[in-house]
Amino acid sequence: MAGGDTHFYRTVDGHGLAHDPFNAIVGPRPIGWISTRSVEGIANLAPYSFFNAFSYTPPLIGFSSIGWKDTVANVEATGEFVWNLATRPLAEAMNLTSASLPATEDEFACSGLTAEPSRLVSAPRVGESPVNFECKLTQLIRLTGIDGQDSQSWLVIGQVVAVHIDQKLLVNGVYDTAAAAPILRAGGPAAYAGITHESMFSMTRPDDQPQQKGRHADDHHR
Ligand SMILES: Cc1cc2nc3c(=O)[nH]c(=O)nc-3n(C[C@H](O)[C@H](O)[C@H](O)COP(=O)(O)O)c2cc1C
């Protein structure tokens, strides 16, 4: 803020606040609720809020694991995972699946969720979730800092190869985001946000105004 009273810090020096504002600022974030299967056949399920979509063609989504966790190990071993939409009715179950369980224990069982078979990948889907993306690994990247040193964070990127959508969320062929009641991760250890019809608004892009011509063929998708 030019001329304002600003809290400034160099990240190497620390934020100097009661809580790190980093993920409260970059928030709320959609949740990558990721199911995988180990080579031995044990199902695994965990939420990852360092998550987003990155490309329309091919359809790519990604999430980042802070530390080498069971989810990343399973994706590396099998090349497959499923993304499940975390919704308000499933919030408490989603939270249970973040428990640090040994790789031999199945988070579906401990959270009371149903592991439904997928169609194109071996990882199961969360049966109770209204939307699932079946994904195949495209890149597993160990992240580095500006010093070029390897961090303990891994970015998993996968191509969505199949999509399941509860018909109730399709209104005249249009997916109704708010009707799905997705939950998002906000700042602080326990903060979440929800999406409702009231909290949504529309805005037409300049290139999509009647007098403008869009420059990119699939721009209107974003
Ligand atoms: C809403 C939510 C979001 C989370 N986001 C991340 C994340 O982005 N990256 C991460 O490494 N852990 C994240 N966690 C913690 C993991 O879910 C947790 O470490 C889990 O035990 C990992 O399971 P796994 O070892 O079976 O993969 C998150 C937890 C919650 C509740």
What does this molecule look like?
By secondary structure, the protein is mainly β. The chain has a single domain, classed as Pnp Oxidase, Chain A, CATH 2.30.110.10. About 10% of the residues lie in helices and about 35% in strands. It contains 4 helices and 14 strands. The chain has helices at about 20-25, 70-80, 90-95, 105-110, and strands at about 30, 30-35, 45-50, 50-55, 60-65, 80-85, 115, 125, 130-145, 150-165, 170, 175, 185, 190-195. Strands 3-2-6-9-10-5-4 form a 7-stranded antiparallel β-sheet, with helices on one face. The chain has a 3-stranded antiparallel β-sheet with strand order 1-13-14, with no helix packed on it. A two-stranded antiparallel ribbon has the order 7-8. The longest helix is centred in the middle third of the chain and has 9 residues, at about 70-80. It starts with about 20 loop residues before the first helix and ends in a 28-residue tail after the last strand. The mean pLDDT is about 95.
Ligands in the structure? Answer: flavin mononucleotide
Kindly estimate the percentage of residues that lie in beta strands according to DSSP: 25-35%
CATH H-level name... which superfamily? Electron Transport, Fmn-binding Protein, Chain A
Residue stretches low in confidence (pLDDT < 50, at least 5 long) are none
Question: Compute the gyration radius: what is it?
Answer: 19 Å
Helix content: 10-25%
Work out the helix count.
4
Strand order of the largest sheet: 3-2-6-9-10-5-4
Mean pLDDT: 94
Number of DSSP E strands: 14
> From the 3D coordinates, which CATH architecture would you assign?
Roll
SS class = mainly beta
State the shape.
Answer: globular
Number of structural units classed as domains: 1
Which topology does CATH recognise?
Pnp Oxidase, Chain A
Q: Describe the sheet with the most strands.
A: 7 strands, antiparallel
CATH class: Mainly Beta
In whole angstroms, how far apart are the ends? 29 Å
The SSE order reads HEEEEEHEHHEEEEEEEE
Pfam families: Flavin_Reduct
InterPro entries: Flavin_Rdtase-like_dom, Split_barrel_FMN-bd
Protein name: Asp/Glu/hydantoin racemase
GO molecular function: FMN binding; oxidoreductase activity, acting on the CH-NH group of donors, NAD or NADP as acceptor
